[in-house]
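Task: sequence design from structure.
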């Protein structure tokens, strides 16, 4: 169980075989390649009033990641909610040096697409498995949005599996 009482994905559903990374295929939104630790939200994220763009912290009081910073992480989430100002708040995180390293999301919208573009981080959607269910916070994630690939090393970094 997670800190918020949500069940964690079953290990068998996440990894194809012990010691092997999980490879997902999807549609690129913003090209580029990056890698880092995953931060997974099962809930959509609000820009205006939902994040503090000065620190990249989720400030929506009832959000499962309230008080957690996505700065320097691969943000895995269903999508955006709220006003069209969503993209401006995420652009401000980039300007303040506290943006996520990359974005993986399940629900495409103009808000989240524009937010990914102005944040200028590799972003991918429409994966062949639900990333919110098969990636866990703390997993090491490599996004190759140039080729529509996401490689997941459960439990953390493994240079051999992500190189």
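Answer:
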């Amino acid at each position: 169980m997670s800190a918020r009482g949500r069940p964690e994905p079953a290990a068998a559903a996440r990894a194809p075989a012990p010691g092997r990374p999980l490879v997902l295929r999807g549609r690129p939104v913003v090209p580029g390649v990056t890698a880092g630790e995953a931060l997974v939200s099962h809930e959509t994220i609000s820009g205006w009033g939902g994040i503090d763009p000065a620190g990249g912290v989720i400030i929506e009081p009832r959000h499962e990641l309230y008080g957690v910073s996505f700065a320097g992480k691969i943000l895995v989430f269903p999508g955006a909610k709220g006003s069209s100002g969503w993209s401006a708040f995420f652009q401000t995180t980039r300007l303040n040096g506290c943006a996520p390293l990359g974005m993986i999301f399940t629900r495409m919208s103009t808000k989240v697409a524009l937010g990914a573009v102005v944040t200028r981080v590799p972003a991918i959607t429409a994966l062949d498995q639900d990333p919110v269910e098969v990636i866990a916070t703390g997993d090491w994630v490599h996004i190759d949005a140039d080729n529509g690939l996401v490689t997941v090393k459960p439990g953390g970094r493994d240079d051999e599996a992500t190189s």
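Helices lie at 11-14, 86-95, 110-119, 131-134, 159-162.
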